[in-house]
Specification:
This protein is 46% helix and 16% strand. The protein is an alpha+beta fold. Helix 14 packs across helix 21 and helix 19 packs across helix 20. It starts with a strand and ends with a helix. The relative contact order is 0.12. The structure holds adenosine-5'-triphosphate (ATP). The site of adenosine-5'-triphosphate has 18 residues, from helix 2 and strand 14.
Length: 614
């Protein structure tokens, strides 16, 4: 059974610590006012809204009920630093054991579980400095966990510890153990600030007469957005803060796109791959999960900017539509299917070994993809006479590939390598510069800018592939000036914001409007270099994976060596580009984005096949 329903959003306003209050709540309505802005939510707790003690009962208990019906569910606490996320989730080490959502979830789960034949497992992860760590791992070396995506698009985590728990106390002890291991640190804003995003997952398997339900409840306590000048962060704390901010920026970007009905209907590419956080939350936002977001805010006037930002994104998240599906299997189905869904600790280890010995072979339909990409937009003209692709179609196609595009590029490169005439066909598309918003977002974490800079970059409205010629003819300064002028700089003060559907600009950008054009230009040039760095990083990672796979499998050595050589060639090419990258102009470097290259190959492959036949 499939259930399409919006993400539900609650706002939790933490108590005020002796300063002026900037939020009011409409009595008996889930409506919040801040300055002249008004937002509507599913629930509002605190500050004369519903009592915070009702958060579990109103927002989370229905998800636990759904978990027992076989639906995946997610509770996600979001908000600025010190707004009370950890307190609300009950993940902290300094709160009472019964405080917060997770202890109540445990109580509820173990009450319900008495009536059914079931098995419960838990895992606990953190994303710290853009790496995923297992908080329940017995090995103190803390090797990062690797994300894998199955052919069906399911995100799996290689080698993660999943422990079976029989009692509430068992589960509590794992929560406490992971919470102690989780990275925390003191800042000027929070004496015990979470320096990582934490995900506590309860996997439930219920065996019935004819079926087995296998569902997961994810309880997510995000690290809070922060400004270095307020937290006083430097050194290690500053580095952590940058990683936290860039992953939250990626999350906001995903929320903004998913929350925009027009973009959703157009099937715009969702940049889940930009950060580990969005990758992990892929199912929870716009996917197979029932999701509740709890936006934690401070009512203090000193926090008004961050609070307004949180309220805007939270409001936008209400437009996200999820499609939850009951996770069930027939009891007569082969048992490995269930093992695959909920591997135990030892099974998970075996699974990791299996992965190493058996390279992932994607199964997808090239014909259908090409059909999607080319015909309707280029029916009457020769394909190579005009751009035949649409950015969104292509990204859609890439996302359907389920594997990194870099390895596709290598495969296609091999295919094309033997024919010199074919390279001519690729040329026109190679030469078109592609300035894609998602590419820019991918590059942002490498820049190590402040969050303010990130926000401004996200607002640049970089031209899409639909106007490539305009972009290539512009100098960098023309480009940035053009885009700076397109910024919506004036804060909207009077309109009812819930109708804006995420069209408003975040407040942080206001400070940046007066920045010099050269600063933006410099940042933009840095971006292209950063893109190559990112690409190089991704390729190196793929290469390491391939080498690991080669070590474990004799039979596939030949094929893998071939893929490895292709990747090495690509890395070499990128290194050369990087070496000359700092002196290159953005239009030149961006034109060689490998996504464009892969795109060109995808687009022209059918033509070449056709010409071969002739
Ligand atoms: N509703 C509340 N009632 C009482 N105290 C609260 C409440 N919410 C938060 N606090 C207190 O505020 C402080 C900060 O809360 P918490 O650590 O949960 O914030 P956070 O949003 O998780 O911050 P960070 O993102 O930095 O980890 C803690 O000392 C906590 O006890």
């Amino acid at each position: 059974m499939k259930s399409t329903e919006p993400v539900r959003v609650a706002v939790n306003i933490r108590p005020l610590k002796g300063c002026t209050d900037c939020i009011t709540v409409t009595p008996d309505e889930p409506q919040v006012h801040i300055g002249s802005h008004t937002f509507m939510y599913d629930f509002v707790f605190g500050n004369a809204g519903l009592p915070s003690s009702q958060i579990y009962h109103r927002c989370v208990a229905p998800l636990v009920e759904d978990l027992f019906k076989g639906y995946n569910a997610t509770v996600l606490a979001y908000g600025q630093t010190a707004s009370g996320k950890t307190y609300t989730m009950g993940m902290g080490t300094n709160f009472g054991t019964s405080d917060g959502i997770i202890p109540k979830v445990m109580e509820d789960v173990f009450t319900r579980v008495e009536a059914v034949k079931s098995q419960i497992r838990v895992s606990f992860l953190e994303i710290y400095n853009e790496e995923i760590y297992d908080l329940l791992a017995s090995n103190p070396s803390r090797a990062p966990i690797i994300i894998r995506e199955t052919a069906s698009g399911e995100i799996t985590l290689q080698g993660v510890t999943e422990v079976e728990v029989k009692t509430r106390e068992d589960m509590s002890s794992y929560l406490a153990r992971g919470s102690f291991t989780r990275a925390t640190g003191s800042t000027n804003m929070n004496i015990q600030s979470s320096r990582s995003h934490a995900v506590f997952t309860i996997s439930l398997q219920i065996t019935r007469a004819e079926e087995i339900l296998c569902a997961k409840l994810r309880l997510v306590d995000l690290a809070g957005s922060e400004r270095a000048n307020r937290t006083g962060a430097d050194g290690m704390r500053l580095k952590e803060g940058r990683h936290i901010n860039s992953s939250l920026l990626a999350l906001r970007n995903v929320i903004t796109i998913l929350g925009d009905e027009r973009k959703r209907k157009k099937g715009v590419h969702i940049p889940y791959r930009v950060s580990k956080l969005t990758r992990l939350l892929q199912d929870s936002l716009g996917g197979n999960s029932k999701t509740v977001i709890i936006a934690c805010v401070s009512p203090a006037i000193s926090d008004v900017e961050e609070t307004l930002n949180t309220l805007r994104y939270a409001n936008c998240a209400r437009n996200i539509k999820n499609k939850a599906v009951v996770q069930k299997q027939k009891t007569s189905a082969p048992s490995f299917m269930f093992k695959e869904l909920t591997p135990s600790k030892s099974e998970a280890k075996n699974k990791a070994v299996v992965h190493e010995h058996k390279p992932y072979v994607p199964s997808f339909d090239y014909d259908a993809m090409f059909k999607e990409l080319t015909p309707s937009k280029s029916e009457s003209l020769p394909v190579y006479d005009k751009p035949v692709y649409d950015k969104e179609d292509v990204f859609q196609a890439f996302s359907e590939l389920k594997i990194p595009w870099t390895s596709q590029a290598a495969r296609f490169d091999d295919l094309f390598a033997s024919s010199s005439s074919r390279s001519e066909l690729r040329k026109p598309v190679y030469d078109k510069p592609v300035y894609d918003e998602d590419d820019v977002f991918e590059a942002i974490p490498e820049l190590q800018c402040d969050e303010d800079d990130f926000e401004a970059i996200s607002e640049l409205q970089i031209p899409s592939t639909s106007q490539p010629d305009d972009v290539s003819s512009s100098s960098p300064s023309e480009f940035t000036k053009h885009n700076t002028s397109s910024l919506d700089v004036s804060p909207k003060k009077t309109e009812s914001e819930q109708e804006d559907k995420c069209q408003n600009k975040p407040m942080e950008i206001i400070d940046l409007i007066d920045d010099e054009a050269e600063d933006q230009e410099k940042c933009f040039i840095d971006l292209t270099t950063a893109e190559y760095h990112l690409e190089l990083k991704e390729l190196n990672k793929r290469l390491e994976e391939k080498e690991a796979e080669i070590r474990g499998s004799d039979e596939e050595k030949v094929q893998l060596e071939k893929e490895k050589r292709a990747l090495q060639r690509e890395i070499e090419g990128l290194r050369q580009k990087l070496a000359s990258g700092s002196s290159a102009t953005p239009s030149c470097t961006c034109s060689k984005r490998s996504s464009c290259k892969t795109l060109s190959l995808l687009v022209f492959l059918p033509i070449i096949f056709d010409s071969d036949i002739e």
